Amino acid sequence: MAARSWSGGLRAVLRAGPVPGRPRGLASSGWPWGEPGAWLRRKLLGPSQPPFQRVCLVGDPVLRGVAAPVEPERVGSAEVQRLIARLVAVMRKEDCVGLSAPQLGVPLQVFVAEFRGPPLRQELPEGLRALEVAPFPLRVFLNPTMRVLDSRASFFTEGCASLPGFSAVVARHMAVEVSGLNEAGEETTWQARGFAARVVQHEMDHIKGILYVDKMESGTFSCLHWAKVNR
Ligand SMILES: [Zn+2]
């Protein structure tokens, strides 16, 4: 694929609202121009190319485009395998539970999801058990399609790495089935419930250029750091 078609960037990461996770801001390094090492790399090597090692932010047109399918015969190519590896690495680095290719600037129908959850010895709070927040292993989907298994609405907090520092309650279907190709190019299906179903719906939306703010309960939209300014 030509480099230009890999331009743009959409990334979105779902984070489990009440699940402990480190807060992130626009300038987590404390340097207004970003990490000094990254600045030096840009000066020496020029701007990075997709798939980026960072998440693109809302406003980037790639976040609003409809991603293209991956040609099945190209799933094993170095280019696609590199994209999948980068998605997994950035998802883990950012402490996210899902990440789609557009979020790294690649407008292709690919997403990864993984929730390693709290340590096994740590009990989930009652509220999270009711919402079926449970760890799930790494999943990779290319050209995913989704159907609803349980259309009852589930309300829960969502965040997105493309809108760092904010969250809102979003209604999602209780259970969905997602089908597509895995990283080996094999047909795969996942029946996801509760929190896992939410992750799937969030990432499927990214592939269609939809962000959680398009579906949120707008009165719940919050800055994660609102309480700090009152201290
Ligand atoms: Zn997102």
TrEMBL record:
Q: Which InterPro entries match?
A: Peptide_deformylase, Peptide_deformylase_sf
Q: What catalytic reaction does the record list?
A: N-terminal N-formyl-L-methionyl-[peptide] + H2O = N-terminal L-methionyl-[peptide] + formate
- For the protein in the UniProt heading, the enzyme class is hydrolase
Q: Which Pfam families match?
A: Pep_deformylase (PF01327)
Organism in which the protein naturally occurs: Thamnophis sirtalis
GO BP, one annotated term: translation
Span of the signal peptide: none
**Does the UniProt entry include the keyword Protein biosynthesis?**
yes
The molecular function terms of the Gene Ontology recorded here are: metal ion binding; peptide deformylase activity
Query: What is this protein for, i.e. what is its function?
Result: Removes the formyl group from the N-terminal Met of newly synthesized proteins.
Q: Give the Enzyme Commission number.
A: 3.5.1.88
Where is it found, in Gene Ontology cellular component terms? mitochondrion
Which family is annotated? Answer: Belongs to the polypeptide deformylase family.
Assigned keywords, A-Z: Hydrolase, Metal-binding, Protein biosynthesis
Stated name of the protein: Peptide deformylase
Task: Write down the SUPFAM superfamilies for this protein, in alphabetical order.
Answer: Peptide deformylase
Q: Has UniProt tagged this entry with the keyword Hydrolase?
A: yes
Record-linked PANTHER family = PEPTIDE DEFORMYLASE (PTHR10458), PEPTIDE DEFORMYLASE, MITOCHONDRIAL (PTHR10458:SF2)
